[in-house]
Amino acid sequence: MTLAVASRFARRELRGGLKGFRIFLACLALGVAAIAGVGSVRSAIQAGLQDQGAVLLGGEAQAQFTYRFASEEERDWLETVSIGLSEVADFRSMAVVRREGGNDRALTQVKAVDDAYPLLGAVELSPQMPLAEALSDDGVVMAPILADRLGLATGDTLRLGDKDFTLRAILETEPDDAGGGFELGPRTIVATAALDGTGLLEPGTLFETEYRMLLPEDADLDALEAEAESRFRDSGIRWRDMRNGAPGTAQFVDRLGAFLILVGLSGLAVGGIGVSSAVRAYLARKTSVIATLRTLGADRATIFQTYFLQVGALALLGIAIGLVLGALVPLLFAPIISEALPIPTLFGVHPGPLFEAAIYGILTALVFTLWPLARTEDVRAATLFRDALSSARALPATRYVVATGVLLALLVGLAMLFSGAIELTLWTAGGILGSLLILVAAAFGLRALARRVAPAARGRPALRWALGAIGGPRDEAASVVLSLGLGLAVLAAIGQIDGNLRSAISRDLPDVAPSYFFVDIQKEQMPEFREIVTSDPAVSRVQSAPMLRGIITEINGRPAREVAGDHWVIQGDRGVTYSETPAEDTRITAGEWWPADYDGSPQVSFAAEEAEEIGLELGDAITVNILGRDITAEVTSFRVVDFSTAGIGFVMTMNPAALEGAPHSFISTVYADAEAEADVLREVADAMPNVTAIGVRDAIDRVSELLAGVSEAVRWGAAATLLTGFLVLIGAAAAGEQARTYEAAVLKTMGASRRRILASFAIRSALLGAGAGIVAIVAGIGGGWAVTAFVMETSFAPVWPSALGIVLGGIVATLAAGLAFAWRPLAARPAQVLRARE
């Protein structure tokens, strides 16, 4: 027989409708829709960032400098290549409001602007007025959250550094607010010229300058970037343009989207279990049809092709439904999503994520339907009139096993390609596969345990019937444990990761972190600063260090990116300090520190872990651009740097002679009792208004807020996985309805009451749900530990409230599904049921 004959058979079979395939379609559609929806939202954000890249950047191109303004030569070139130029300085400071009972102060991110700002977009103020008017005569505008925190109204006076300013308006909209990345303090905008006399932009203080440009229509961005880097290669210039207006935001969105899609793949894996169960149940009902075809001469290939085409057509239908949902749902909720996000979005039908979701759906359908279909080939025609599939061997022919392996490898490979997160994808794939293996083993173990325990339940009929059903030959235990267990395992793993990360940030970190970071302390202020903080008995420890920032431009004479790739140490500027002797707690892992009176060529001690990741060795030469000057230093030692304590930690420490002559300030960490922190801050701020204090607890709260948003998004992704598992659970309950009807009929005939039969069904569901939940906890804790310990590299402790909630959820879910399909079996008349089985 030919494929054409199989196609004709398949078309005739499909005329019977979708009975038995509703769960099949729902599982595929939901999994594909979740992936397509997340991808569509991510593409909408990426399109918005690209479309509004120039506005987010503040210009069509930007040159950025650290701790300095552009030199005359640099500014002349920037003016030559542009048709509009705006200078912006960005730094942190303390906003202070003087009151009789004591001063109020808060950390703020200050943006100092010139008359040309903004080149693109508009600043919206309340009350409405031009920005230039608001900033005239020492005026400032301020974010509403900061004004509320300080109790300020328009017309009130505040202090920045050593100078008073007047709040003229509340900042409602800042066009380039998404381009700056993570900020610890709310925004204040002030005119750059008004900062004279504040002491906030002294040489060596921590600030950045950005020169935003409008370019001629025929400007070549690649050529301009190459010229800037060539002309000012040794000055530390950093170039960005509108093609990547908000790189930090874009990278965050891309990584979060990739992670959510991997969570969506977990949902597809759960759906795949439902797909496999639906195909198996469908083929079991078709044994008489298959037997008839075999007796009429249909060969194994024709049988396989007939049902492969049927299932394939239905799979394509489910995938198509999922793609439509994944494309339309984000469009329907576009206004709500756009309003909730602080970045621009451009919603539409984006083909890329839909294609990606379709590929995932097709491969998942193939992986989970191939074995049930293939096993029909190994069953003789005579046995097909009985339960053919249960009598077939566990594994199909070798070619199908190999094909399944190839499809799995292709699925994981494409996931790595599409997500761009190879390590995370492998962890996810390994976690799903490991969870499935654990769940399969648990399902068999649960059945064996039920058979062993059942005799001990004499005198408790409902419990014994439930245990007997679980330990029986049907696949109910496997279906429930696999479908619900994997969904719960994903949710459990996310709960464990989230809980441990939150604990590390909000509980463990404050115990080891300092109370404050004080920055921009001038060298001549250090004696007074030390006297203030060390004279306070509530201060337990003070650490101070010179603070500069530099960009690693070359390693052994080669561009740093060629050697280290995209390692975080190479991206952007890094903190650099100098020290004559190593600190008391310094642990040198290789090499030697320079002599105390060393004044030769520059030497550098590098963080050991980062050096190993980059591939540095003792004797290598590192070129660091600091304040526009290249300093090439020999790597003479490696040392352990622990960034997890939020204390002072520098990747690079140089000998004093290499850096002492450069303008710089000092940074200091102060460890104090929580109740005394406010007093310490007040004393330092009153004595040195130019010094900025960054409260570690405030920073922790800010990080926790961001983490809460990420966790919420991930939970929604996991919810789709759990919903898919619940659909599979419903399918399993529906498939077992006929068996429960027969069971209820037999029990009624033997004198059992409906209440006792219902109790048996409920106990069975609760035990299966508890079993699935317990296994999910084991898999979830294991997965959470692996990600926390090896990917995030932090400590792990089980989060038991989340774990216990998973068990409870499993019990409730199985009870709901089991009892929903218990009423008809209970209502069936035993005589009719038993007569029909004769």
What is shown here, in short?
The chain is α+β, with helices and mostly antiparallel strands. The protein has 28 helices and 21 strands.
Describe this structure in words.
This protein is α+β, with helices and mostly antiparallel strands and 838 residues long. It has four domains: 1-56 and 249-420, no CATH class; 61-218, no CATH class; 442-513 and 696-838, no CATH class; 539-672, no CATH class. It contains 28 helices and 21 strands. The strands form two sheets. It has a six-stranded mixed beta barrel. A six-stranded mixed β-barrel has the order 12-14-19-16-18-17. The radius of gyration is 33 Å and the shape is elongated. The model has no long low-confidence stretch (mean pLDDT 81).
The secondary structure category is alpha+beta
Low-confidence stretches: none
Q: Sketch the major β-sheet.
A: 6 strands, mixed, barrel
What spatial order of strands do you see in the largest sheet? 2-3-8-5-7-6
Head-to-tail CA distance between termini: 37 Å
How many beta strands in the DSSP annotation? Answer: 21
Overall 3D shape: elongated
User: Percent of residues in beta strands?
Assistant: 15-25%
In terms of quaternary structure, the protein is: single chain
- Specify Rg, calculated over alpha carbons: 33 Å
User: Helix share of residues?
Assistant: 40-55%
Helix tally equals 28
Number of domains: 4
InterPro entries: ABC3_permease_C, MacB_PCD, Membrane_comp_ABC_pdt
Domain MacB-like periplasmic core: 25-229
Membrane topology: Multi-pass membrane protein
Transmembrane segments: 256-283, 304-337, 357-376, 397-418, 424-450, 477-497, 716-736, 757-787, 799-823
